[in-house]
Amino acid sequence: MRIELSRFSSRLKRVFSIPRLYGLLGPRAYTVMMFSAIFFTLAVKFFHSYRTGMINEYFGWILADIAVLLGIEVILALVCFRWPRSWVIRIACVVAAVVCTWSVINAGWVIRSGMQILPTVFVSLFLDPITSIVTIITNIIHMKIAAVILLVPTAVAIVFFFFVLAKPLPPLYNRKPFAARIIVCVMFIFIAALSRSALARRSSPSIASAGLHYNSQLRAVNSLFSADPWRLTSADIANAKRKIPAFDQVQIPLRSKPKDYNVVIIILEGVQYRKTSLWDRQSNLTPYLADLAGQGAEFSNFRSSLTHTTKALFGLLTGRFPSAFPDTAEAVPVVKPYSSLATILEDQLNFRTAFFQSAKGNFESRPSLVSNLGFDKFWSREDLDDQTAFLGYLGSDEFSMIEPIVTWIKSDEKPFFLTVLCSVSHNPYEVPEWFATPFGEPAERYQQTISYTDKFIAALDSKLTELDLGKKTVFCVVGDHGEAFGEHGMFGHIRIAFEELLHVPLIIRAPSLVEPETRVTEAVSSVDLTPTLLALLGFDPNAADFDGINALGQVPDDRKVFFSGWLQESPAGFVIANKKFLYNPTDKAVSLYDLSVDPYELSRIELTGPQAQRIASEIITWRKNSIFQLNQERVGRKTLFDSWQCRWINRLAWAKRYPDVIN
């Protein structure tokens, strides 16, 4: 028996030995890689269709992949058949390896976001490679099974690829079988291409499905070189006419004697309106937010103007639209701070100003954005002495900010403007151990962080009361953008324009200035916050050239509230009352959602003809007009807040902490 097992084992070793496997697969290297690309693509789309309940969409999603990837394989096979030389085989293998690598990256992105990846996603990797890599590793840790399924075969494929490059084996072709193989592949390509058109017409019109109908490789190339009018080009950037005024170019008149109030704004990171007790009063997830809304004004139809934190912060704190472009132009250091809520309050009412955040300061070059907005003080996770309060790769315990905030408030008798940016509700959604044991699933962890943030808001508000400041403080809680958890088959917040991303909380409590139980139901936006707060303090915001309006005043019934995603290929649109108009550049479609009868956006109404063209043109024009001039050197560096060195290239900025740097 042992002898037979020994013989069987030796046979397996001979059959599956590396030289023998290489001899078998080496002459077919590019084919192996191309079919690996097909496998990864088809497998991940099946997984996504299964987890989102869209199995009936699956075949429509994969037909373009079959046509394109098989087409590439056929071309490589014909080239190697015609010129069976080592350098040709190496080039074919490099092409196949690039295609396969993109398929693996795309598979990971589909698992994480529910969307196919595009080259613009890599902007963040360029800006902050260390944080981006840590983010990727964190996501891998939280998706262990998917990571193993993707990474183990990828590692094997990489080793195989370098074997082939070092020692290419020419394929041995038998003309008849080779010709038959090519004919069969071409037939599959034609059938897939023809069937895709038919299935696309019959499939669900949801945006999630439309994005997955395309082949990711072809879509990526097209996104770089297409002449789509939606795409913003370098010429659009260079010819931008819009200018953001500097702090000394804006003087806003007072309508009455200025109100003797402090201002506190707490900005929630990625919190959906529907995940709070504001949406469902029976929910006990955010009881303090619900109580706070009863003490002042709740804006139940408030939306983020752009679903990216840097962009949203700029809109919230300046009253002007950020540039709807995948850059961080708002954070590129400028010679003079922009006109903002901070600069207006400091220059005209002698306020002191501070920006506190529990996240890392180098994330999206926050110090330079805060400096551009005119704040005197910046505090971030790097200022914490206790590193045990750090949470994940980005955030920290929000409660650790309370003591330094109180210290800053007590340091001077002058009125103050304080902005606090939370971070715990950002991916990877971790709460401190003292608060609770973190849940397992991302959606559960996310809700847990929202509950935790509600407790932090209550604690900070309590401190203001202890300092006898509650009755003389305008206390505001607002969201930057929401977060998706598969409501429409997508996850995250980069390229999504559904209400789970746009609809966020806004509450303003101002004792004696805002009546309790005030409820504003008109559609308002991030850019309305600054003019609204200025109006409360006695200013006349109509005298300034804001993009926003006083949301506590008269809101026109026909007002268009514009919004956009961050990336080039993101949908954008506007809301009028409860009608939401959307332009999706993926399929060039214009659609309408009637939110009064369809609040969850399950029934998309397709618009066509002149009406659709007019709406698409209006949205495209708004987006292009949002780009502002950046009157700054192309490349540079600047030290800010004593210890932050901020650098920039064109419209991209990043920052690094140097504790010993002194201005």
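The record above closes out task 2.4. Task 2.5 opens with a second protein, given below.
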Amino acid sequence: MKNRARHILTSIAAAAMLALAPSAFAQQVEGIVVLVNDQPITTVDVRNRMRMIIASSGTQPSPEAIERIQEQAVRGLIDESLQLQAAAEFEVTVDPAEIDSAIDGIAERNGTTREQITSELAAAGVDIATLRRQLEAEIAWQILVSGRYGSRIRVSTQQIEAALERIAASASQPQYYIAEIFLELTSAGGEQQLQQQATAVLNALRENTPFQVVAQQFSAAPSATNGGEVGWVLGGQLRPEVQQVAQVLEPGQLSRPIRVPGGYMIIAMIQKREGTTTVQYDLTQVTVPTSAVTENTPDQLRRALDRATCANVDSAISGVPGAFATPLGEIPASSLLQNIRDALNGLEAGDATQVLETAAGRQAFLVCDRSIGGPGMPTRDDIEEQLRGQQLSNQSRRWLRDLRREATIEYR
């Protein structure tokens, strides 16, 4: 059956290579390419999807590209069929106005209008219904995934703090404006097939197929709906293997396929700038001068600091001979000595450093507040939303993978 499907698809691909005009496609024999749980995907569906992909790319595809496009078209149509079937099962419907809004968003990102998109697709022999069905599946799936998993996702304070720490650690490193394509490893394909797909996608990009078109059609990342555009990110927000590649890319360059958990990633470096993010502390310094230090001072001071806050520090340290507190106010981390920065690393408001031996005697620092700022610096809400999005995306991929595994997919 798969050989039969490949024969049909090869005929479709040949038609696309001969001419992109509707008449050339119309001469092909109509039929069913694949049944997805008894729902047919026809040669008409595949040809229309191929035309739309080709029209979106704005380039004349090579024979190799045509083959990739046909495989992409069928794979996408199968996934969309599964998504729409799941939507029907859960009685999820998409208002036509939502689809209109999605098309308007595509138009805005591409500097055009909905009417122009409709006319350009028509000129390529593509009915606007082809795009509308694709968007209907995307929107319905987003509703399903959010409804099924949204309330279960929890982003802990510890996760947010860990992300902030990674960002703070990379505050002085360059910041990147990137776009991404994530190619997911599935049980149906395997590592070798995914490597081949990653190479084919990279070749398509090098042949000047627009990045956003390839991302929208191939990428499994949430950014696919924005043409792969991620925006400004700090080094600490990237996976280590991705950051390692990003730091050597120049604007306008593409990365090689990068192996990451779950698949391969390709990034495009759009812009780069020097890091200007700063970490700032509001500190209170507690000092026991050298003249008052005894062998018991470190333990006494540590116990006092365990119950101290910036508001009650004077009373908390009153039992430590010679100890006094000095509010330092807000200080950039870069202005502190390295040993103090090291002691403060990982601490949050209300925490205290260990007792340090300094030229002044024995000292410790209470963190009254801590903030990270600068261009491109995400807020706590931004980080929480990013982490939620990552978890939702993971759940989305798992669910769709389960649907594929459980489905009856019959090539004709």
